Amino acid sequence: MRLVVRHQTIYRYGSGSSRVAMLLKLWPSEHEGQRVESWSVTVNDEPVAQFVPNGHGDKDVLWIRHDRMDEANIVASGVVDTRDTAGVMTGLPQGADPLCYLRATPLTPVSAPMREALAALEHADDLARLHALSQLVRDRVAYRAGVTVAGTSAAEAFDLGAGVCQDHAQIFIAMARSMGIPARYVSGYLLADDDAGALHETHAWAEARVPALGWVGFDVSNGLCVTERYIRLAAGLDAHDAAPVRGNAVAAGAITVDADVRIDDSELSGGDARIQQLQEQQQQQ
């Protein structure tokens, strides 16, 4: 598929800010199932181009401003060619040792109820166990918006029995690590099946390391391995580590954040016209 994306995030600082620092993980990874045809990132209409590889093998940049700001308008847009690789992430840039992804974080603890649920998984090989784990999490944790927050841990969401894609991914990751399988959190974009189900925000899923295959992407919320409808942005130990935008501001007063993602399948010879249309759609919201 040829996917056209426009992702806009606007930070508004109620009393103005004297300093803003943001870590931007907004440059899509390249692998056998994903090739970046064109891509740009701007902050307040100024290009940001100094993206460099990080420890996970993805690209990021630290953007800093020391003068007064009332608003930071971040836009990532471009065209990405994708193909279905049955979820296998072959050809990813070299990152950290996979064993690093066995480490638990404050967002990915394993509770006693989670360990008890794992006891029911009796599949012989890792891939089968991971597919069963994905189904287990989906069955036990209903998709329900508004019941968890950014700081909700995997154990808390599992006990609650409800959450969103962030919670599904972190529960899967925590339980896979408990089985001795390296697993990590992935942020990116998903093209929904139709306009009625369109997502206007980033999506989250998990990758687990299978010895015979390498990294395999599991979207627990949708009950499948990632396909050509997904664009991979960044990986990390948890949602905080893989966040597309993360930062802080000094003397900012009240801070509000508005984010919107537009993604479409385009067969146009060039992506600029469709990006312009996506921009107009965002401005009308």
TrEMBL record:
Give the matching InterPro entries.
Bac_transglu_N, Papain-like_cys_pep_sf, Transglutaminase-like
Instruction: Kindly state which keywords UniProt assigns to this record, in alphabetical order.
Output: Hydrolase, Protease
Q: One biological process GO term for this chain?
A: proteolysis
Q: Which Pfam families match?
A: Bact_transglu_N, Transglut_core
Transglutaminase-like domain: from which residue to which, for each copy? 157-222
Gene3D superfamilies according to UniProt: 3.10.620.30
Q: Indicate yes or no for the key word Transmembrane helix.
A: no
Q: Which GO terms describe its molecular function?
A: peptidase activity
| Full protein name | Transglutaminase-like putative cysteine protease
